[in-house]
Amino acid sequence: MTMMNTPLTMRVLMERGPLYAADTEIVSKTRAGIHRYTYADMGRRAKQLANALAKLGVKQGDRVATLAWNSYRHLEIYYAVPCMGAVLHTLNLRLSAEHLAYIINHAEDSVICVDDELLPLLERIGDQLTGVKHFIVMSGVAGSGGQFTTKLGPAHNYEDLIGGESTEFSWPEIDENAPMGLCYTSGTTGNPKGAMYTHRSNYLHTVTQCMTDSMGVSGADTVMAVVPMFHANAWGLPYSGCTVGFKQVFPGPTMDGASICQLLQDEKVTFTAGVPTIWMGVKAELEANPGKYDLSNLRAMTCGGSAPPRALIDWFETTLNLEFVQAWGMTETSPLGSVARLKAKMKDWPRDKQLDVKQRCGVIAPGLEVRVADINGNEIAHDGAAMGKLLVRGPWITSEYYKADAPERFPDGWFDTGDIATMDAEGYLAIADRDKDVIKSGGEWISSVDLENAIMAVPGVAEAAVIGVNHIRWQERPLACVVLKPGAEVTHAQINEHLVTKAGIAKWWLPDEIAFVEAIPKTSVGKFDKKVIREQYKDKVLTTA
Ligand code: ADP
Predict the structure, then answer these.
(1) Which residue is catalytic, options 436, 440, 463, 523?
(2) Domain residue spans in the chain?
(3) How far is CA 312 from CA 89, 127, 347, 453, 463, in A?
(4) Fewest C-beta atoms under 10 Å: which of 63, 285, 314, 379?
């Protein structure tokens, strides 16, 4: 006797929302105002959509893309497309036009559902999208005449398309290893690369996400994902929402501090997730308007995508009396990789020591395995300081890139994340750098991120980006590009002095050269564009002692 081998398909989880949380609300902020309906409504409309897509010829395995902000219609597509056996390809609206065209063609998308205000993004590349058969425009109103003309040619209006369809749809039985979702990395070097999620991978990711020691979201929560549904599945929260039936709040296109604070208050949000810049905007809004917002319902704020500053973590926990939880993940890891929560024994630790833990990105999620390997492939010391390549494996880690060969990223059945990490004695990871950014100085590694943060804390410094440049003896040494605040006068020697005496930076980490510049080149998402900086200094050879 063994146990049943029922397939781990998303239908089993997704239909729980309409079944067991039928009257729980799904709230979306749109340009036109607040839209409210229930899981029951959402489930019916998802089935109408499935009927409509089937009539357009969408079959199992076909790619249906979305170019959309977080909203209820996007959720309906999240539900209908995988459950009918097709593949949901979320297009990252922050990609360059060139990369957007590349991924649509590479994925062979046959249908694209696009928010009306994002239509111009697609129209710009329309002539390159030869394989797309149908464009479905999601606009606020029904009744625009079924089909209408855009610069892309004829397009369907979402509301008219689904409006006349039956609210019954019999979801097919699907193999648990069938693909259900596709997401491309943002491709800071070269073309974006795709990770193809399966029903099984996403099922296990969803269940793990709901564990208390992971994100710990439950049916008792009201959740607002400020992380986008167009990248890394909004960290999987829309799927968890349908699974446990929490109230979902979608912020739509407006993500400034004031809009977020207002929505958190009005909808009594208990759990929210976003990247550090979002929370910096919220903090600025709250500081500028003391007493304006009542955020007493908010119990947890999850933060990932890049490392949140220690002061930000401390501010939110002490000011709003909530739990600030750092997480790490990437497109290739579905994305949940690790979550930083305090263990019982840490509850009594002094605040500083607790913040040391919270500043790390957490312990690997149950179900995944991790290795942090040094230059020779040996596990590094778990002392919180030794750096190594972060390798992971598990059922929701991609085993290859979609239609792209990159064997170097998958050594011996592991995924090389490209992140450089440390692990402390308690198993908490911290991301020290990206592999391509870490400075390899005489066989030892220097974290460009740590150096940048330390330099940016020097009075008078506005911004700092650190790269490794060639060195005749040490292979690479750090060079810092520094932007000073208006009117500030700071020298290289003063910066080094501050790094050693105030920031505790080791002498051998100090930048050999500092270039005082007007501005630091940035990528489309506002990160330092180190590729451009490296290009500027590629012929430079340092000869410092
Ligand atoms: P991309 O598509 O650009 O790869 P991802 O959203 O997949 O974007 O980004 C993943 C990367 O973000 C990780 O490899 C890591 O470098 C960084 N990252 C994510 N979470 C954290 C964190 N908590 N601390 C530091 N870096 C993080």
Answers:
(1) 440
(2) 10-254, 367-434, 439-542
(3) 34, 45, 20, 14, 18
(4) 379
Q: Which residues pair with 542 in a beta bridge?
A: 471
CA distances from 29 to 70, 231, 261, 508, 512 (A): 9, 19, 13, 51, 50
The answer to whether residue 205 scores a pLDDT higher than 80 is: yes
Between the CA of 156 and the centroid of ligand 1 the distance, in Å, is 36
**Do 456 and 469 touch, CB atoms closer than 8 A?**
no
Options 332, 474, 476, 509, the catalytic residue: 332
The residue assigned the tokens 């040619």 is 153
**367-434 has which fold?**
Luciferase; domain 3 (2.30.38)
Polymer length in residues for the chain: 545
> What is the C-alpha to C-alpha distance for residues 30 and 268, in angstroms, rounded to an integer?
18
- Catalytic residue (one of 328, 445, 474, 509): 445
* Burial (CB count <10 Å: 0-12, 13-18, 19+), residue 400: middle
pLDDT at position 544 is 82
Neighbours of 23 (CB within 10 A): 9
Contact 270, 300 (CB under 8 A): yes
Using CA atoms, how far residue 140 sits from 30, 93, 120, 145, 162, in Å, is 9, 19, 17, 14, 14
* CA-closest candidate to residue 69, choices 245, 235, 250: 250
Which DSSP helix (H) or strand (E) runs through 13? helix 10-14
445: annotated active-site residue: yes
Find all residues with CB under 8 Å of 241, minimum gap 6, and list them: 17, 75, 217, 223, 248
**Domain boundaries 10-254, CATH class:** alpha beta
Confidence of residue 187 (pLDDT cuts 50, 70, 90): low
| Annotation says 440 is catalytic | yes
Report the pocket of ligand 1 as residue ranges, CB < 6 Å: 185-186, 232, 304-307, 326, 328, 330-331, 361, 417, 419, 431, 434
Q: Per CATH, which fold does 439-542 belong to? A: GMP Synthetase; Chain A, domain 3 (3.30.300)
Q: How far is the CA of 19 from the centre of ligand 1 (A)?
A: 35
Least Cα distance to 71 among 13, 114, 23, 22 occurs for 114
Global pTM value: 0.93
Q: Is 171 part of the annotated catalytic residue set?
A: no
Mean pLDDT of 22-50: 97
pLDDT for the residue numbered 340: 98
361-410 tens-digit pLDDT? 999 999 999 999 998 899 999 999 999 999 999 999 999 999 999 999 99
How would you label 361-377 residue by residue, b for 16+ Cβ within 10 Å and e otherwise?
A: bbbbbebbebbbbeeee
What is the Rg, in whole angstroms, of the alpha carbon atoms belonging to the chain? 24
Instruction: Give the residue whose CA is nearest to atom 12 of ligand 1.
Output: 305
Residue 392 CA from chain centroid, whole number:
17
- 332 in catalytic set: yes
